[in-house]
Design goal:
Elements: H1 18-26, H2 34-37, H3 39-45, E1 50-59, E2 62-70, E3 80-85, H4 92-104, E4 114-118, H5 123-128, H6 150-159, E5 166-174, H7 177-191, E6 205-209, H8 215-225, E7 239-240, E8 243-244, E9 250-253, H9 255-258, E10 269-275, H10 284-304
Parallel strand pairs: 3-4, 3-5, 5-10, 6-9
Antiparallel strand pairs: 1-2, 2-4, 6-10, 7-8
The structure holds zinc ion (ZN).
The site of zinc ion has 4 residues, from loops.
Length: 305
């Protein structure tokens, strides 16, 4: 018998319709501000980088301009490095780690790569500390044509014309305790499925593409981040979040098939980082530093190969 209470919206075994989605939406509250926490940080970078508004999300009464930060001396023909954060808005270090990378490290790569950074892909969810957009859609399962998520569609419109020049794409995420307490149960309820409990790993790991694993590249990210925070150990079955560990701290997903952000370009090197912010052994500062370290290690690897 399943003794856990069912998610408070919907009927067990029945996928949500519009009324359930509306009820879910009505329960979401603004808990922090994109305009106060994120936009001013981007504005301060304008002195050293080009900032572009690549779209706007219109969710009445709110409007969210979407920002991309580019290398100032963008030269056609140089490899493009794409960094994305906040595809899941609640994953704080994805947003602030991307911004920290730009502020502290991006200039180290000037003249060698063209950097394109979208630090907060899903600002509505950033403000509500949620995984989904207002339609209860996960942007990180929506990178396909036509996309059901405006967050993914706007980013694809920015990136697709440059797709063939993108050599590296790193997408910055977190795995949190709320994945198990809130988001996985919500997903099961939304889709009319049973929630199968999963263990949240204590530590950092990366997700590579099953169809292009690049394990040496993934391992270079793990080695760099291990200097900043601890790496997730495999569980007793040799797995992390139910997936067999391909190398220490590395699991593989079919990125393109799942509509993951990291599968958007088909770049030679792609990785999704997963910082664990709920460990008693890490601070928010370390989480941001871990994301920045992963980006630097990824670019260093690209430039060395
Ligand atoms: Zn995520």
């Amino acid at each position: 018998m399943n003794s856990r209470p069912f998610y408070p919206i919907g009927t067990p075994g029945k996928a949500w319709g519009d009324p359930e989605r509306a009820e879910w939406h009505s329960r979401q509250r603004v808990l922090r501000s994109y305009a106060k926490d994120v936009v001013p940080v981007i504005d301060r970078l304008r002195a050293r980088f080009d900032v572009q508004v690549y779209g706007e999300l219109n969710y009445p009464p709110d409007r969210y301009p979407l920002f991309a930060i580019r290398s100032r001396n963008w030269v056609a023909g140089r490899p493009i490095v794409l960094v994305t954060g906040g595809v899941h808005g609640y994953e704080t270090s994805g947003v602030h780690g991307a911004l920290r990378f730009v502020d502290r490290h991006a200039e180290d790569y000037a003249g060698r790569v063209n950097l394109l950074v979208a630090p907060c892909v899903s600002p509505w969810a950033y403000e509500r500390i949620h995984r989904w957009n207002p339609q209860a859609i996960d942007p990180n399962r929506s990178f396909r044509e036509p996309s059901p998520a405006p967050e993914a569609a706007a980013l694809m419109q920015l990136v697709m014309p440059l797709r063939d020049q993108v050599s590296l794409h790193i997408d910055l995420h977190e795995t949190t305790d709320t994945d198990e307490s809130e988001f996985s149960p919500a997903l099961a309820a939304r889709d009319g499925k049973e929630h199968v409990p999963e263990t949240i790993p204590d530590g950092f790991y990366v997700v590579g593409d099953q169809n292009n694993p690049q394990l040496e590249f993934q391992s270079a990210l793990i080695a760099a981040v291990a200097k900043v925070t601890h790496i997730a150990p495999p569980d007793a079955q040799g797995k992390i979040i139910g997936e067999k560990v391909a190398a220490p701290g590395v699991i593989l997903f079919p990125a393109g098939g799942l509509g993951l952000c990291a599968g958007m370009t088909g770049a030679r090197y792609t990785s999704t980082t997963e910082v664990y912010p709920d460990s008693p052994r890490v601070t928010a500062e370390q989480c941001n530093a871990a994301q920045a370290a992963a980006v630097c290690a990824a670019i260093d690897y690209l430039l060395a190969h």
